[in-house]
Specification:
It comes from Eragrostis curvula. It is a single chain. The chain is an alpha/beta fold. It has two domains: 150 residues, Alpha-Beta Barrel (TIM Barrel), CATH 3.20.20; 54 residues, no CATH class. Helix 3 runs parallel beside helix 4 and helix 4 packs parallel to helix 5.
């Protein structure tokens, strides 16, 4: 399958994708078994480009998720949570459990993204995992996601110093800077902060 997919679309990044690996609740779905499967696929010529963790979880434990991510990161492949939903009847507990998963994913350098398997009540395979009520309003878990997203967005505002510089520390991602000159002219420039600790210098004189 991997060879045929690579032949049909040579530019596609092909992922493996499995469930229960991050939960430590299934002896047949451990990180070690998953890594062995990836090694077998590679030996057979499969161009594995990433690791998918489905993320259909209940009662998640942060330390367990982190341990699984640490082990899988040794494969030196990007990791995505591909089908996230957190099952819990109590909305307050669902919000807490969702935060556990998202914080572990966001904090881990090997994780490149998270995809939700669904968000709206009545349109998901698990009835106790929605972030939106049937009328489209946020429930407590949905509000927790919004709050976390706001926490992880960097905003900075200020004036340049005597050397014509303005410094800030931000999460990696895409930004837009707006500069207003003393004459009132406004300049906009988009830029991206990549992973890592290396500083990024943006020259607004060369737009």
């Amino acid at each position: 399958m991997f060879r045929e997919a690579a032949r049909l679309d040579p530019g596609a990044k092909l992922f493996v994708n499995d469930y229960n690996v991050e939960c430590a609740n299934d002896p047949n779905a451990t990180p070690e078994r998953y890594m062995a499967l990836i090694d077998d696929l590679r030996r057979g010529g499969a161009q594995v480009g990433g690791i998918g963790l489905q993320g259909h979880v209940s009662n998640p434990v942060g330390e367990v998720i982190c341990d699984a991510l640490d082990k899988l990161a040794a494969m030196d492949l990007p990791i995505w949570i591909t089908e996230l939903d957190v099952g819990e009847q109590d909305e307050a507990l669902r919000a807490d459990d969702l935060e556990v998963v998202l914080r572990e994913a966001y904090a881990h350098p090997a994780v490149e993204g998270v995809i939700f398997w669904g968000i709206m009540q009545g349109h998901m395979w698990r009835r106790d995992a929605a972030l939106l009520n049937a009328d489209g309003t946020l429930n407590r878990a949905g509000q927790r996601f919004v709050d976390l997203r706001s926490e992880w967005m960097s905003n900075a505002r200020g004036r340049m110093d005597a050397e014509g510089q303005f410094k800030f520390r931000g999460f990696h991602g895409t930004y837009v800077v707006e500069l207003t000159t003393p004459a009132g002219t406004k300049m906009l420039k988009a830029f991206t902060i990549d992973k890592g600790d290396a500083p990024l210098v943006l020259d607004m004189d060369n737009l």
